[in-house]
Design goal:
CATH topology of the largest domain: Rossmann fold
Structural class: alpha/beta
CATH class of the largest domain: Alpha Beta
CATH superfamily of the largest domain: P-loop containing nucleotide triphosphate hydrolases
Oligomer: single chain
Shape: globular
Length: 491
Amino acid sequence: MLTLSGVGKSFGGTVALTDIDLTVETGKVHAFVGENGAGKSTLGKLIVGVHSLSEGRMEVDGTEVSFTSPAQALDHGLAGISQELSLMPQRTVLDNIALGREVMRGPFINARATRRGVEAVMERYAMHVDPDARVGDLPIVEQQKVEILRALSRDARLIVFDEPTARLPSDQVAPLLALVRSLADAGKAVIYVSHFLEEILEATDTVTILRNGRHIRTGPTANETHDSLVEGVTGSVLGEQYPEVAAPDRAAPPVISVTGLSRPGVFENVSFDIHPGEIVGLAGLVGSGRSEIARAILGADPSRGKITFNGREISGSIAARLAGGMAMIPENRREQGLMMGRPIVENVTLPHLSRFSGALGLDRRRERAAADAHCAATEMKYASLNDHADALSGGNQQKILFARTTLGDPALLIADEPTRGVDVGAKRSIYDLIAGLAKQGKAILLISSEIEEILGLSHRVLVVSRGRIAGELEGAALTETALMTAAFSGT
């Protein structure tokens, strides 16, 4: 359906894409993968008219086309679904889908006929959403359905999904992937832009790998593996993704000792120590209680048991524990970690403002100097400390949290899914940050759903199953098979 020949895109003196040749077929899901800045989202936006081509040609059904707006692309049946949805949250599902395509009776809208048209599209694609529901009240995955239905009601034949699961909780990913698959089965061409390699392997037919704005290769997804995709995207093999971690000081007193930690109905009798410089992985299936244990240690949720931190038994508020030397990279940076609409400097320094305050108020110069130094140490890419967090890539947003953490110089870092929503290239720099903190003698509690990440970084792994520690693995016993056997032991 779609053919690109020698396509390139430049923004001023910056070359984003060079000499891209590929074909997108109907009835298939075609993935674009690459690191942040590789050009995958830019290529998707060229196809749906958000950007115009700087060079090359694009053909739809054999006819050359040139778009200067998404509306022109939609006239040719090409539509885009971005992770930041363009819906009217205060209006109904019906209003959002029918907007601009209402059935008219003279100068008036024929409400009944308009509703029938919307319901017919839902029925045709077996994609049902309450037409009278207010869009802002719907879960994100349902809002995505509304955006898709709006495109389908305009006869879209090719739909570009740009990071569609980036904002979804884990339990809503599978329904979205099934929806994408159903569109291809219905004869649509689907382009799926993502850095989640597991999703690519599960849900797509063809994969195009981009690196530094260049086309590396295109081929059947069935011929790819997780390792081959990592190598294609980064140019390095998987084993090189993990830094060497220094041995911890097991002779030193533990930074934290957890004894009999329990929260009835959630987790029971959790006990472990973490020594200076030690990375302890907390692994398990989704819903096993991993994050809940971390929240209890930080004081975010009530619990029973004993926590000794830096030699003293602790209790009390989150603020007191943070002030005492704990820090946390939360599972969901958008909702739990960052002020997305505020500048980088504020996100980095907010918990530490007392360090820059005096009789005359806040010393902005010292604050900015400290924020700049700690951001630079994470190798964060930004133009100005005044840039808002939501203007940065996922990897750089995550580095804001690490800059905030290192500014506080904690004794314990709880890192809950520290590379979620981060491309495979940016992951290595985050791994380096974690290994570097351990080398400084910090204790690290690492929670991750990615087995390779747990195996690649941890000195020791505690496996959680149904709220209990089902196994403790280290050394030669720390294998994927042993980890998964323990994870499933209580199911």
